[in-house]
Design brief:
heterodimer; A: mainly alpha; Serine Threonine Protein Phosphatase 5, Tetratricopeptide repeat; 5 domains; B: Glycosyltransferase
């Protein structure tokens, strides 16, 4: 007991004094306690870089030894020597026993044994004679009830009354240790880890097997103050010295919560075999393997020792738990082993279909360009979560984007359309537009592109699709209106019709920051669509369902607002109608002026007018004005929220386009407060981080996106990797 | 030679001024009865001062006041009690400062790990006094550690002035749009010489001088009063996010000035006049309009203006202010601080 007792306190004390060389005896015991060698150290993470490499000090002189602040406690040797001359004060034992506090009784016995090796604990602690000194008796009683402040008070009171009286050293000593223990636990609960380490270093007598909770807390504090090796040493200490089986098991579990799997493996080697041959940590090896694999699910770069992966594979094959197969699927997916991932996701679904298994499978299917099956797999689970929904929608967008288009049954098209409309998903709506074009249904395409634009004002590909389709329909006005709206924002729209150049339409889609799902295809020139004209039957059967135009907020028809009138001559209600009418014609600035007049009307009119004006400004790309309009009249909660979301999203995009990523982040943060971040905006956040050179943050975002199969995520990761590659 | 003499003379003055601190404190400046009444109402048996006006929570300020009052009452036992609680329950931060807020009903009890600089100053100051008065090296050592942490974490230079952040986090120029933000009632002037003794630094003297100069300059609104919370960016104004008022924080500024030995007649009279309400009450003031927010008639608040009258004109305190009867934690604490000051420095006003 004794050598290791000193050893741990020396380890803790050593880290409390950063940059000091260790005295020889400390070096010696550190060597004896720690299994680590220098190769190990070299391989450890950079968390350790600020820390003094204790092991390098071996063999060197220790020139500043005298300056080391010793722990305030007398050293163990002194205490043992002192004890031989005095009797052991057993008062505390009686109090703990009288209160039935077995844990603290045992802790006190261990403590006294450590201090006085020749001492034998009394058979019956209750029989320990009472102090004749009643006041001292009260102090011990308060001590045993953990009322330490009151003990201090009682001591001071007695000293004031009897100046010659001295508190017994034993009482003061134990009080000091008990207070230190309390402070250490309080500091640990509050994550004040430097305080925990400091107290541990100053109070070596707390660091014993009878205070294993304190040891755990010190180990944890060492870990969080970037002393990973010391934390490992503390866990090793427990496994080398402490016997309580439950505590040993808990030690491994706690160590595994913090330490990398390789280090945990070293600690597991300290396990003991029972006489019957069973090993004490067997019960948690399976769980540990599952946990390591699960942790690696979140991050494709985490390396899991192969024996853990194969252990889980064995469990999945023999145990028949869907959850084990699922773990493996999500383990292989971010590592790019799609074949293995698909195998395990299928296995998991066979055992028990679930949203997670279906999502995983759908992602592997999208990856190998089988979106039809992906749609089918995900349909049942599309409403399970926002993630499930985006995987489903990704499958639909990819399905419609297959080039050349494939035949899709009416039933499937119907359900996709219903889902797209329900979730107002611009990406798939846009693909419906291209799909309709490919199947020679330009009118249908127009409606889908318009719908997509209604949901996503800045969706340039939809605007382009709309313009191309208008051109095909020879709707010159329609083309001109789109060109006017997108002037300065899209070159290909501006140049449309200038020259009848089909190649312009075949250029690859420009990356749009804010794209929900990037689709792996080129924009289809009309000429290509003829190639598939023999397959449109299925689609033709259902145009009514698919093509159902989005709900409009129109109050008046387009009739009657084409002429230019000064809206101030109108009544508020008429101005409101005119405002909506102008919105229909996509003349947002005039609409805003009309709504301004309508703001003078009844509360109901005013509310609608403010809403309309916000939408108008949003459409005109004037988000800040929209924000002002939104507060001109109190809006219904949903409406207000919807406006606010649209305004903030628009702000974020506009700021990004204007090269102000910091403002983009600000707007996104605000948006985050009111609604979960949409995938497209998450990508925008990633790009904003990228612009600000916050590569770590950008990587985190893109990794998350890539994990759900998002192309922006993969593209962003590629950019980051390139940057770091160039810097190499 | 001349220089050497001067140095010796200065050292002598410094030494003498240090001597006065324990000498004063040796005579209990708070009567046994008053202290007993205070303890019964606000001191939990486990050593925490209860803020009964604030949901019975405790905080570093209250613990600091409790420690200071124990010293002034000459009660070593109560000091030991309150200190043990403070040390084990609040003095837990990595940087050596105290967590400011402790709630009886939560686990962990500390519900905000941030510090409050006035609490830290009071605790360190009381430890310094106790260490001297009762020759307790452990108290002085603990006080010195806190004093060094105060210097390191909250004392800072701004535009040539030595200032105090109200907390280590949340108030600096980098933490707030309108930062730095200060609280002028966190300058506990009497503490700085004791802190300087434990953790010697020229910053303490400058902190005191610059604090007094700053308080003289903080004249907001028609009543020309300082605000509880002041933004210094770019020039002093009531800080955003706080009520622009001379409130419960600021009303102790005159008490701290007086206890800290500031006798500037013009300043003290100006503060007294601007905060005098109906029926001898003192007032909190809306700084924009200059109107009274609250008339405070508790003798614990009223003693503040009577002390100013005592310091400048030797006016005797009214009978109900001389008498201590505990009411609520905060005014009662100010009351005892006020009474102990008059007893020590102006017995003629009693």
């Amino acid at each position: 007991m004794k050598p290791s007792f000193i050893a741990l306190s020396a380890i803790i004390a050593a880290v409390g004094i950063v940059g000091m060389k260790k005295p020889d005896y400390v070096k010696h015991v550190i060597q004896s306690v720690s299994p680590a060698n220098e190769d190990d150290l070299a391989a450890r993470s950079s968390r350790l870089s600020q820390q003094q490499p204790a092991f390098q000090a071996v063999g060197e002189r220790a020139p500043v030894f005298q300056e080391i602040k010793r722990p305030s406690e007398p050293s163990l040797d002194t205490m043992v020597t002192a004890a031989t001359a005095s009797t052991v004060d057993e008062s505390a034992l009686r109090y703990f026993a009288s209160q039935g506090d077995a844990a603290r009784l045992q802790a006190e016995i261990s403590r006294l044994k450590a201090l006085y090796p020749d001492w034998t604990p009394p058979k019956d602690p209750l029989a320990i004679p009472q102090n004749e000194d009643k006041q001292l008796e009260t102090m011990w009683q308060l001590y045993s009830q953990a009322r330490y402040a009151e003990v201090r008070k009682a001591i001071a009171e007695r000293q004031a009354a009897e100046p010659a009286w001295q508190a017994p050293a034993d009482l003061l000593d134990r009080l000091g240790v008990a207070e230190a223990r309390l402070r250490l636990i309080n500091a640990s609960d509050l994550k004040q880890y430097e305080t925990v380490v400091r107290i541990g270093a100053e109070t070596s007598s707390l660091l014993t097997c009878s205070e294993v909770d304190v040891l755990w807390r010190v180990a944890e504090a060492l870990y969080w103050t970037d002393k990973v090796q010391r934390a490992t040493d503390a866990y090793s200490y427990i496994l080398n010295n402490c016997q309580n089986a439950a505590e040993r098991l808990a030690t491994i579990q706690k160590a595994a919560d913090l330490l990398p799997s390789r280090t945990v493996e070293e600690l597991l080697a300290k396990e003991k075999a029972a006489p019957d041959g069973t090993r004490e940590f067997d019960s948690i090896r399976d769980d540990l393997a599952r946990r390591f694999v699960a942790e690696a699910n979140a991050d494709g770069k985490i390396v899991v020792p192969p024996q853990y992966v194969s252990r889980v594979e064995r469990l999945a094959e023999t145990g028949g738990l869907a959850s084990d197969a699922l773990l493996l699927g999500w383990y292989y997916l971010p590592r790019g082993d799609m074949e293995a991932a698909e195998k395990w996701f299928r296995r998991a679904r066979d055992k028990e279909d679930s949203a997670s298994a279906s999502q995983g499978l759908a992602l592997t299917l999208i990856d190998r360009n089988a979106p039809l099956e992906a749609e089918n797999v995900m349909y049942r689970w599309r409403d399970a979560s926002t993630e499930a929904k985006s995987v489903y929608l990704a499958a639909t967008a990819n399905l419609l984007a297959i080039d050349p288009p494939i035949s899709i049954t009416a039933e499937v098209l119907k359900r996709i359309a219903a889902e797209v409309i329900k979730s107002r998903n611009a990406a798939t709506a846009q693909q419906f537009g291209w799909y309709a074009r490919a199947l020679h249904q330009p009118q249908t395409a127009v409606q889908w592109f318009k719908t997509a634009l209604g949901w996503k004002l800045d969706d340039e590909p939809s605007a382009y699709g709309l313009a191309v389709t208008y051109l095909q329909l020879d709707d010159r006005k329609g083309v001109a209106e789109i060109q006017r709206l997108w002037a300065g924002r899209s070159e290909r729209i501006a140049r449309l019709g200038e020259e009848k150049d089909a190649s312009a339409a075949t250029t690859e889609q420009l990356p749009v920051p804010g794209e929900t799902v990037t689709v792996r295809r080129k924009i289809r020139p009309p000429a290509q669509a003829t190639a598939v004209s023999d397959e449109p039957q299925d689609y033709r059967e259902t145009p009514d369902v698919i093509v159902r135009p989005r709900e409009r907020m129109s109050v008046a028809t387009a009739r009657g607002c084409r002429t230019t009138i000064n809206p101030e001559t109108l009544s508020p209600d008429a101005a409101l109608a005119r405002g909506w009418c102008l919105m229909e014609l996509n003349r947002p600035l005039e609409a805003a002026a009309a709504f301004e007049v309508a703001l003078l009307g009844s509360p109901k009119t005013r509310e609608d007018a403010a809403y309309g004006q916000s939408l108008a400004y949003l459409r005109a790309g004037l988000a800040s004005k929209a924000a002002v309009s939104a507060v001109k009249s109190p809006q219904k909660r949903e409406r207000a929220l919807e406006l606010q979301k649209a305004i903030l999203a628009d702000k974020a995009v506009a700021a990004f386009d204007a090269g102000r990523p910091r403002e983009t982040l600000l707007a996104l943060d605000q948006l985050n407060q009111i609604t979960p971040e949409r995938t497209d905006l998450l990508a925008l956040r990633g790009y904003a981080y990228l612009k600000m050179k916050r590569y770590g943050d950008a990587r985190r975002i893109f990794e998350a996106l890539a994990a759900i199969g998002n192309r922006d995520g993969q593209r962003g990761l590629a950019i980051i990797n390139e940057i770091f590659h160039e810097n190499d | 030679m001349m220089r050497k003499l001067l140095a010796a003379l200065l050292a002598g003055i410094f030494y003498l001024s240090l001597q006065t601190v324990p000498a004063e404190a040796q005579q209990p400046m708070i009567t046994t009865e008053a202290w007993q009444a205070y303890k019964t109402k606000f001191l939990d048996p486990g050593g925490r001062i209860i803020d009964d006006g604030n949901g019975n929570i405790s905080h570093s300020e209250g613990q600091g006041y409790g420690l200071l009052l124990s010293v002034l009452a000459g009660s070593q036992a109560d000091f030991a009690l309150i200190w043990t609680f403070t040390r084990t329950e609040l003095l837990l931060r990595d940087d050596g400062l105290a967590a400011w807020k402790w709630s009886p009903g939560t686990k962990p009890h500390v519900t905000d790990i941030n510090n409050a600089s006035d609490g830290d100053i009071l605790i360190a100051y009381a430890l310094g006094l106790a260490g001297q008065q009762w020759s307790r090296r452990d108290y002085t050592t603990a006080g010195a550690t806190i004093a060094r942490a105060i210097l390191a974490r909250t004392v800072f230079q701004n535009n040539g002035r030595m200032l105090l952040l109200p907390g280590a986090a949340g108030f600096s120029a980098s933490d707030r749009e309108d930062g730095p933000v200060i609280n002028p009632s966190y300058w506990i002037f009497e503490a700085f010489p004791v802190l300087d003794q434990m953790a010697p630094s020229p910053a303490w003297g400058k902190l005191r001088d610059d604090g007094i100069a700053l308080i003289k300059e903080l004249r907001f609104g028609p009543k020309q009063l300082p605000a509880d919370w002041v933004s210094l960016k770019p020039s002093p104004k009531p800080a955003s996010g706080f009520p622009a008022e001379y409130g419960y924080n600021a009303l102790r500024i005159p008490l701290y000035l007086a206890r800290g030995g500031v006798t500037d007649r013009q300043l003290l009279l100006r503060l007294r006049q601007a905060t005098s309400g109906v029926n001898d009450a003192i007032t909190t003031v809306d700084l924009h309009s200059g109107t009274t927010r609250t008339n405070l008639s508790d003798p614990g608040y009223r003693i503040v203006n009577h002390i100013l009258a005592c310091v400048v004109d030797k006016t005797v305190l009214p009978a109900d202010v001389k008498q201590f009867t505990p009411t609520l934690y905060y005014p009662s604490t100010l009351h005892l601080l006020g009474l102990s000051f008059v007893a020590a420095k102006h017995p003629e006003c009693l």
